[in-house]
């Protein structure tokens, strides 16, 4: 069987959500059979306090990932929820942690940029300031030396604050900035930009001043249903459900099936 690349983002794994965990493990089993590589584009975990504070649940996930990454290469780019995920965990999970904000990939004569996507949301100025602050090495060094109970409380506080402020922000501000997308696509003359973060799964054409045609594929977050991108000849964005120990694709979106109202929000 021909093997494909698989790409996921925004799984938001958490111990209290057994359903998503089950879907994720079934997905890993599928990739083990059909994949030649796996790219995880951030927010794999809903929250990350530090590699020194692993729960049994997180260790179990690491073991499952290690089983896969011993067979095919797995890559991880951090999201805004798990940006503190470090080398210790990467080693446990066997994946390669990409420290840059994006991966430039050439595959089947096409050029791809893979990223979490939060850096494209340049209209959300308070978020970009926050991001810069928490990614500052000095801030992270300070954080690492805090007592564990303080880390718990701080993380909880930040999540609640982010939820509250996001409710006040407009939908447009929290989406990607079109100019940021075009600049990026133009710079490396890419064919596909693939990201998550916004939880707005869809396929968009990127209109560029030159005749170059590019697409932006947005992965969705996982809830009752999940999303992945599979690349053989062309990339396909696939929504799926799971149960009875199997993954069932529901919808497939690719440049071949492009139409604007593919996604009806449920
Ligand atoms: Mn995110």
Automatic annotation (TrEMBL):
Bilayer topology reads: Peripheral membrane protein
- Can you tell me which residues bind Mn(2+) 1? 10, 12, 43, 199
Record-listed Mn(2+) 2 binding positions: 43, 80, 116, 197
Alphabetized UniProt keyword annotations: Cell inner membrane, Cell membrane, Hydrolase, Lipid A biosynthesis, Lipid biosynthesis, Lipid metabolism, Manganese, Membrane, Metal-binding
Organism per entry = Thorsellia kenyensis
- NCBIfam families this protein is in? lipid_A_lpxH, PRK05340.1
Q: Of which family is this protein a member?
A: Belongs to the LpxH family.
Output the InterPro entries linked to this UniProt entry. Calcineurin-like_PHP (IPR004843), LpxH-like (IPR043461), Metallo-depent_PP-like (IPR029052), UDP-diacylglucosamine_Hdrlase (IPR010138)
Q: Name one GO molecular function term.
A: hydrolase activity
- Which pathway features in its UniProt record? Glycolipid biosynthesis; lipid IV(A) biosynthesis; lipid IV(A) from (3R)-3-hydroxytetradecanoyl-[acyl-carrier-protein] and UDP-N-acetyl-alpha-D-glucosamine: step 4/6
Q: Which reaction is catalysed here?
A: UDP-2-N,3-O-bis[(3R)-3-hydroxytetradecanoyl]-alpha-D-glucosamine + H2O = 2-N,3-O-bis[(3R)-3-hydroxytetradecanoyl]-alpha-D-glucosaminyl 1-phosphate + UMP + 2 H(+)
Q: What cofactor does this chain's UniProt record say it requires?
A: Mn(2+)
Gene3D superfamilies hit by this protein: 3.60.21.10
Outline the extent of the Calcineurin-like phosphoesterase domain.
6-201
The protein's name in its UniProt record: UDP-2,3-diacylglucosamine hydrolase
Q: Where in the cell is it found?
A: Cell inner membrane
Concerning Pfam families, the annotation shows:
Metallophos
Known EC number: 3.6.1.54
Main subcellular localisation: membrane
């Amino acid at each position: 069987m021909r093997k494909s690349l698989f790409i996921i983002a925004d799984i938001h794994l958490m111990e209290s959500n057994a359903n998503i965990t089950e879907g994720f493990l079934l997905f890993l089993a599928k990739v083990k059979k059909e994949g030649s590589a796996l790219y995880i584009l951030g927010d794999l975990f809903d929250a990350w306090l530090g590699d020194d504070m692993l729960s049994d649940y997180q260790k179990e996930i690491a073991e499952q990932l290690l089983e896969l990454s011993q067979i095919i290469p797995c890559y991880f780019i951090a999201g805004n929820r798990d940006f503190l995920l470090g080398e210790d965990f990467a080693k446990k999970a066997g994946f390669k942690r990409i420290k840059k904000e994006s991966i430039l990939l050439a595959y089947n004569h096409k050029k791809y940029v893979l990223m979490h996507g939060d850096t494209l949301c340049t209209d959300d100025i308070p978020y970009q300031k926050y991001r810069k602050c928490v990614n500052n090495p000095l801030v992270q060094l300070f954080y690492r030396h805090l007592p564990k109970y303080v880390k718990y409380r701080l993380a909880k506080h930040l999540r609640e604050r982010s939820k509250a402020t996001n409710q006040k922000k407009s939908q447009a501000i929290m989406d990607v900035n079109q100019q940021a997308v075009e600049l990026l696509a133009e710079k490396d003359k890419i064919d596909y930009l693939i990201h998550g973060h916004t939880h707005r799964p869809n396929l968009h054409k990127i209109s560029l001043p030159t005749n170059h045609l590019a697409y932006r594929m947005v992965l969705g977050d996982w809830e009752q249903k999940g999303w992945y991108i599979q690349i053989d000849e062309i990339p396909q964005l696939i929504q799926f459900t799971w149960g009875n120990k199997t993954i069932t694709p529901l919808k497939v979106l690719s440049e071949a099936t492009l139409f604007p109202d593919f996604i009806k929000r449920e």
